[in-house]
Specification:
- The protein is mainly beta.
- It has a domain of about 160 residues: 7 Propeller (Methylamine Dehydrogenase, Chain H).
- Helix content is about 5%, strand content about 50%.
Length: about 240
């Protein structure tokens, strides 16, 4: 029989395993993070410091630090062993939905209702870059395995890829209501699409809109899009 844990007093928004699998962190609307022993179910510590609901928790790759994002607009870094608050990262102007460590543990990405992604130095807490481009709440962020790229998901219906080193937007992924059609487009306008995805593309030249086929020979370039997604230079 499964017996639910009862340490939180309000709904739990996020959970995360430590890299060694021995600890579970949970973030809740009760404004706390709880650390649980994954083997015994014992509640080890309750981390208090946020003044709003905790929407996201994430362990650093070495398991020594926990990042938590909250609707108090902050990210807090905690010592996973002692529960001590190390730093409070302030820079978002609305609630933080998602936090993620880079694979090397040196960078933290946070996504917010303020429609931005912020990259933080995990050691100093310094804000490195604020990534702007979404037209809706940023609900999720994740690093690529090599740490060179960040994917962000938004209520604007898109997934965007960003270059970590420069903050440059690499490409935007879009799906459509049909459930079958998709489009990926670079900031330079090069795109690839499903067979019927072209019908969603319009080009604004001056004050006139043109259908996709007007410029498809020039801009429908799956080869260039593939280069961009590999991190290669786009002409």
């Amino acid at each position: 029989m499964l017996i639910p844990q009862t340490g939180h007093t309000l709904p739990v928004e996020s959970v995360s395993f430590s890299p060694d699998g021995r600890t579970i962190a949970s973030g809740s609307n009760d404004k706390t993070v709880i650390l649980w022993d994954a083997e015994t179910g014992e509640m080890r510590r309750k981390l208090e410091g946020h003044t709003g609901s905790v929407y996201s928790v994430s362990f650093s790759p070495d398991g020594r630090t926990i990042a938590s994002g909250s609707n108090d607009n902050t990210v807090i870094l905690w010592d996973a062993e002692t529960g001590e608050m190390r730093r409070k990262l302030e820079g978002h102007t609305d609630l933080v939905n998602s936090v993620s460590f880079s694979p090397d543990g040196r960078t933290i990405a946070s996504g917010s209702d303020d429609e931005t992604v912020i990259l933080w130095d995990a050691e100093t807490g310094e804000m490195r870059r604020k990534l702007k481009g979404h037209a809706g709440l940023v609900t999720s962020v994740s690093f690529s395995p090599d740490g060179r790229t960040i994917a962000s998901g938004s209520s604007d219906g898109t997934v965007r890829l960003w270059d970590v080193a420069t903050g440059r937007e690499i490409a935007t992924f879009i799906s459509f209501d049909s459930g079958q059609d998709w489009l990926v487009i670079t900031p330079e306008g090069y795109y690839n699409a499903s067979p019927n995805g072209d019908r969603f593309v319009r080009w604004l030249v001056g004050n006139r809109l043109y259908p996709a086929e007007k410029f498809s020979n020039q801009f429908k370039r799956p080869d260039i899009v593939a280069k961009a997604l590999r991190g290669e230079k786009v002409p």
